[in-house]
Design a protein that fits this description.
221 residues; alpha/beta; five-stranded parallel β-sheet; two-stranded antiparallel ribbon; 8 helices
């Protein structure tokens, strides 16, 4: 009986010393809680190559629709403001004024092909494109994606050179389409360019890749 009481006393002392020693209690690690997806608006500003009415190409195959389905969460609401035969200057007049009401978090911009077709100078295109980017930020966008003009388009290099610095200095993410092989169906006058279905998928993927990279930069910044 004495031996049993002694052992019980020692065990009780050990428990008291352990509790008062200040050693942290061991806890079972738990998985971090994933916050619910944010509800937000995403907007595309563009010309004929960005519309959902692309000749014989199905609505769901337009690059904005593919980008929406593959890159954005289901909580996003998508608006495509693009219009056919729209220069960047015309986008400022007709599309950009709709941005404040939509309050987008993400704005994807692809303009310039119709500028070339309409004879707009590279310098004017660059100024107009920068204005679109700044207006997108002013409307609340935290991610602004801007695609350049593929090399397959005549005079693309001059326009890209004029716009590149203005785009990146305005806190926009450049979506580089130049490494892609894009097949265009040129119109009869040789000035209008419409990507084929396979090329539209490649363009959408380029936007999606840049979008995910921008998200990662924000989360780690």
């Amino acid at each position: 009986m004495l031996r049993q009481r002694t052992l019980s006393f020692i065990a009780a002392c050990v428990a008291v010393v352990s509790a008062c020693s200040g050693s942290p209690a061991r806890t079972v690690p738990t998985e971090p809680q994933t916050p619910p997806n944010e509800v937000f608006n995403a907007v595309v500003v563009g010309d004929g190559a960005s519309t959902s009415f692309v000749g014989r190409t199905a609505f769901r195959d337009s690059w904005p629709q593919v980008f929406f389905r593959t890159a954005l969460p289901r909580t996003a609401t998508f608006f495509n403001l693009s219009t056919r035969f729209s220069t960047t200057g015309e986008a400022i007049e007709r599309q950009v004024p709709q941005l404040p009401a939509l309050k987008p978090k993400v704005v994807a911009i692809w303009l310039g092909i119709d500028d070339i077709g309409e004879g707009v100078s590279p310098q004017q295109y660059a100024l107009d494109l920068q204005a679109v980017v700044l207006d997108a930020h002013s409307a609340g966008a935290t991610i602004v994606l801007v695609a350049n003009i593929p090399d397959e388009v005549t005079n693309a290099a001059q326009f890209n050179a004029a716009a590149s610095l203005r785009v990146t200095s305005s806190d926009a993410v450049l979506v580089d389409l130049r490494p892609l092989t894009i097949t265009f169906d040129a119109s009869a006058d040789g000035r209008r360019y419409q990507p084929d279905t396979s090329s539209l998928a490649s363009i959408a993927n380029a936007f999606a890749t840049s979008y995910r990279s921008a998200l990662a930069s924000i989360s780690t910044g």
